[in-house]
Amino acid sequence: MAQKDPCQKQACEIQKCLQANNYMESKCEAVVREMILCCARMPRGKSISCSGFEKEKPTQERLNSNTTSD
């Protein structure tokens, strides 16, 4: 039996947030930060959900980013 993707929950939360906010990314920054943090804890290739986040580094500047585009 295949193991559950360790960051799937965060990936689903991003999708829910985007749908609930008419795909305005600025409204979902907190859930994206949670995904970045989850992926940072995983070894490369461990989570298929992290494939688009593996190059991301959870730098303090990015985690504290409060800029919005609306």
UniProtKB/TrEMBL annotation:
Disulfide bonds join 7-38, 17-28, 39-50. Keywords: Disulfide bond, Mitochondrion. It is found in: Mitochondrion. Transmembrane segments: none annotated. It holds the Pfam family CMC4. GO terms for cellular component: mitochondrial intermembrane space. InterPro entries: CMC4 (IPR027179), Cys_alpha_HP_mot_SF (IPR009069). PROSITE patterns: CHCH. Its main location: mitochondrion. Belongs to the CMC4 family. PANTHER family: CX9C MOTIF-CONTAINING PROTEIN 4. This is Cx9C motif-containing protein 4. It comes from Microcaecilia unicolor. The lineage of its organism: Eukaryota, Metazoa, Chordata, Craniata, Vertebrata.
